[in-house]
């Protein structure tokens, strides 16, 4: 049985995806959430949006996920950066999260990061 | 951890599960919530991984209730019930779903993994958020002292 290591998708908001961001890296594993604004069945590429920011999602590897424009989806996958600096997430998983509290999600991701950072600092001095 | 919590399932994030030190005396029942990102079925068990945003943890769901000598101590109806439950849970474990996994944590090939006793597929889109918040609260107030 294969025993390869899969990277965890760091939860981020789309506002954090900009060229100088630490998350804006080729092959970076991310978890993104947003409203599906468009979807092409031919290319299996969708566009999610959160506020003013949007991100392309390549869903060609996803099975058993039906896409409905106007619903909220969460994807885990690896970021690919095109030569023109446009990012596209190569999704490994996707799910409909209609009903998610996006404000709570954003605040919790921030709180979680702070908590993990404090834990790391404590472990370093122990 | 507080000894009064020995029989409870401690809620942990994947990153913390990998930082546990295996102990024969301390309780090792844990619960975590994450997105299923891999699934590997064998005749004996289902191996799957959950990603909760802090790390990935491998989980094993045994499916050998009808053949393993371990289950000889139980009567046949109990064995059948365990077997059916495990197979039903295995069927529900699909890539992309969010699962609440409860079980015992142990070291296998130098990596912590969960031998599951119970897997529940979460339908609530806020389930992972709630789990993160609970883990942060318990991490600060219950599991260890932080500044």
From TrEMBL, chain A:
Q: Which GO terms describe its cellular component?
A: CST complex
Name of the featured protein: CST complex subunit TEN1
Which Gene Ontology molecular-function terms are recorded? single-stranded DNA binding; telomerase inhibitor activity; telomeric DNA binding
Q: Which organism is it from?
A: Brassica carinata (Ethiopian mustard)
Which GO BP terms, alphabetically? negative regulation of telomere maintenance via telomerase
From TrEMBL, chain B:
* Keyword flag Translocase: no
GO MF terms on file? DNA binding
Primary residence: nucleus
Subcellular compartments = Chromosome, Telomere; Nucleus
The identity of this protein, by name, is: CST complex subunit STN1
DNA-binding recorded as keyword: yes
Family matches, as InterPro entries: NA-bd_OB-fold, RFA2-like
Q: Which domain of life is it from?
A: Eukaryota
Query: PANTHER family annotated for this entry?
Result: CST COMPLEX SUBUNIT STN1, REPLICATION PROTEIN A-RELATED
Q: Which UniProt keywords apply?
A: Chromosome, DNA-binding, Nucleus, Telomere
Mind telling me which GO cellular component terms the entry cites?
Answer: chromosome, telomeric region; nucleus
> What is the organism field in this record?
Brassica carinata (Ethiopian mustard)
